[in-house]
Write a structure and sequence with these properties.
globular, Serine Threonine Protein Phosphatase 5, Tetratricopeptide repeat, 479 residues, two-stranded parallel sheet, mainly alpha
Length: 479
């Protein structure tokens, strides 16, 4: 009841005038089991008419970390039926306790392996597989799976489930930020609120904004993330205790996150400025060997790599690698990040053997720390595939790219900047393999996604356009 009450509140519906048909009471699938008197095809027709006639499906799931709904074949059938009808709307809803659980999980810091709370969510999305659902009657499972196989297929249906999950996650996070902001404004306007309480609320709101913005960045919503990063800075600078050590630390972190926002948007000079400010402030507060200072140095190296300043980038990444080894050891997610980026520098310097060594180390540690289906593992696979491509090993390259893209599509869906990067790289492999039609197909897929997220003038979109034009020119010359 709490779930439906919250649903009505969110959608501004009167609970007393909102009617909900419960699936198992409207469609008695058990009559098939009990008497075998209704053939599955006939029951499917009845089920389909009732679902599509109502037109709105609320899929109530719990817990968010392992939804029971996705383990039940009749729930999958319900989702498939609504998915197959363009006029039918389906929405995932969860109890208030699950919303609170998600936020608690998202705002925890890194664990001993270097994993954020967000990594738990990414793992859940990567493991969504409707084909693992179970039924008490094996024939039901067989019939329903046959419909899915003959229709959208498991991959498409998994992507739809993940899209709905991501939509619920985003709405939950953004509403949590709005509620926290409203609560802070109420406290500011309440003359009885103490400065200690206000500072505590500001700090908690800044933490929440930081984690939500990071999730948006990973989801490809870079402009929305940037708005939140700037909002966080406004809150910090609006504090009465701006010279307080805690808020100095928060401001240093905020400059770093704003730098990250600019970096994702392709604004390298602004990104470098933010990272340098963050490094200066963190070094002043914590010293040159602290994790926060080293993290800022790593980010500076990343911009330098993008700008082609390979010597300075390699120097910074190597310093970070040695620092993280001393802090956390060799098998830590932070250390794995440095392996990957040191490898990128060596690859750009054409030292392919050293690059291969670093990429393999990064992949092994990331799989150890984060599991085989994490986006960071996809990043490592992408790096390896590009190296194979540069070495002329097209088959190895394509196989590795496909492993990478399977992870991206499972976690973020087919329309995401990282998925676009994988499409572009697969296009490069086909281009090198002289398959120009497939190369053009993948370059165009990548361009369409990047244009949607970044616009035509973004450097990443321009790369796609240049590759598309180069392929078209070669085809015209051959014609």
């Amino acid at each position: 009841m709490d779930t439906l009450t919250c649903y009505c509140k969110k959608n501004k519906l009167d609970p007393k005038m909102t009617f909900v048909w419960i699936c198992c009471l409207c469609n008695n699938q058990h009559r098939i089991v009990a008497t075998d008197s209704v053939p599955f095809d006939e029951f499917q027709s009845i089920f389909n008419k009732r679902v599509t006639h109502i037109g709105n499906i609320i899929a109530m799931m719990s817990p968010w970390s392992d939804p029971s709904y996705l383990k039940r074949i009749w729930c999958i059938f319900e989702m498939y039926t609504s998915y197959a009808d363009a006029n039918c709307q389906i929405e995932i809803v969860m109890p208030p306790r699950e919303q609170e659980s998600l936020i608690r999980a998202m705002v925890v810091g890194r664990d001993e392996k270097g994993n954020w709370g967000i990594d738990s969510l990414l793992s859940v999305l990567a493991q969504t597989k409707v084909e693992n659902a179970q039924a008490s009657v094996e024939s039901d499972k067989k019939y329903i799976f046959r419909l899915i196989e003959e229709g959208p297929g498991y991959g498409k249906l998994n992507q739809e489930v993940n899209y709905l999950m991501r939509k619920w996650v985003r709405e939950t996070m953004m509403s949590s930020v709005e509620e926290a902001e409203s609560s802070l404004i109420e406290s500011i306007n309440d003359s009885s609120s103490s400065q200690t309480n206000l500072q505590k609320q500001r700090g908690e709101l800044c933490d929440l904004i930081f984690y939500v913005a990071n999730y948006l960045n990973k989801s490809g919503e870079n402009a929305e993330a940037m708005k939140l990063y700037n909002r966080e800075l406004e809150i910090i600078e609006g504090s009465n205790n701006i010279e307080d050590d805690e808020f100095k630390m928060r401001k240093a972190t905020c400059y770093g996150t704003i730098g990250t926002g600019h970096f994702y948007l392709g604004e390298n000079e602004k990104a470098l400025e933010g990272f340098q400010q963050s490094k200066i402030m963190n070094e002043e507060i914590f010293g040159p060997t602290h994790q926060r200072t080293v993290s800022a140095m790593f980010n500076i190296g990343n911009v330098q790599l993008q700008l082609g300043d390979l010597d300075n980038a390699l120097e910074n990444f190597t310093k970070c690698m040695n620092a993280y080894k001393n802090m956390y050891g060799e098998n830590h997610a932070y250390t794995a990040d440095t392996y990957d980026y040191v490898g990128r520098c060596y690859e750009d310097k054409k030292d392919l053997d050293k690059a291969l060594e670093m990429y393999i180390k990064a992949l092994k540690v990331r799989e150890l720390c984060r599991g085989p289906n994490h986006p960071d593992v996809a990043t490592s696979l992408n790096s390896l595939a590009l190296l194979y491509l540069e070495k002329g090993e097209c088959e190895n390259s394509l196989t590795t790219f496909l492993r990478s893209i399977n992870i991206w599509e499972a976690v973020y869906g087919p329309e995401h900047p990282e998925t676009a990067t994988s499409y572009l790289n697969i296009g490069l492999a086909h281009q090198q393999n002289k398959d120009l039609d497939k190369a053009l197909q993948y370059f165009t897929m990548s361009k369409d996604i990047r244009e949607k997220f970044f616009g035509l003038d973004h450097p990443n979109t321009i790369i796609c356009l240049k590759l598309i034009n180069s392929v078209k020119e070669v085809r015209e010359q051959k014609a």
